[in-house]
Amino acid sequence: MTPLPDPSLAAASPFVRHAGLEVLTATAEEVTGRIDAGTDHHTPWGVVHGGLYSTAVESACSIGASVAVNDQGMFAVGLSNHTDFVRAHRAGPLDVRAWPVHQGRTGQLWQCDVTRADGKLVAQGRVRLQNVPLAADG
Q1: How wide is the angle at C-alpha 60 spanned by C-alphas 56 and 63, nearest 5°?
Q2: Which of 3, 46, 47, 64 has the most CB within a 10 Å radius?
Q3: Secondary structure of 113-130 as H, E, C letters
Q4: Is the pLDDT of residue 138 over 60?
Q5: CA angle 135, 131, 108 (to 5 degrees)
Q6: In order of start, what are the domains of the chain with their CATH numbers?
Q7: pLDDT digit string (tens) for 12-59?
Q8: Cβ-proximal residues to 81 (8 Å cutoff; 6+ apart), any chain
Q9: Which residues contact 52 (CB under 8 A, 6 or more apart)?
Q10: 125/62 Cα distance (integer angstroms)
């Protein structure tokens, strides 16, 4: 089995690091995380940009899907991301939870909820992913 990449913010690309998704758990059945949303994530109208939600959904689903196929020498890449923005959010913690809807030999479908501290849904997305072999050199 190939070691999984470190999903921590410290090891993330600058883009993912700026989004601020802190991964709390990552298994083949569920990924949980948290984002402390604030003014750095705002649109000119003072609400969190939908791209933050799409990034969180894509990241959480891709991590879980990759964990699911890691023991087969594979990882998962997103083919489509459909994220619905349910309600505006200005600042404060957001909880992220992703889980598989379908895990197949060549592809997977994952769903993700982004909720406020009071449990209200802010965004929800589905990501379709393809399982691909890891490069021979790692």
Answers
A1: 140
A2: 64
A3: EEEECCCCEEEEEEEEEE
A4: no
A5: 160
A6: 9-133 (3.10.129.10)
A7: 788 888 899 999 999 999 999 999 999 999 999 999 999 999 999 999
A8: 54, 57, 58, 61, 125, 126, 127
A9: 19, 35, 37, 41
A10: 12
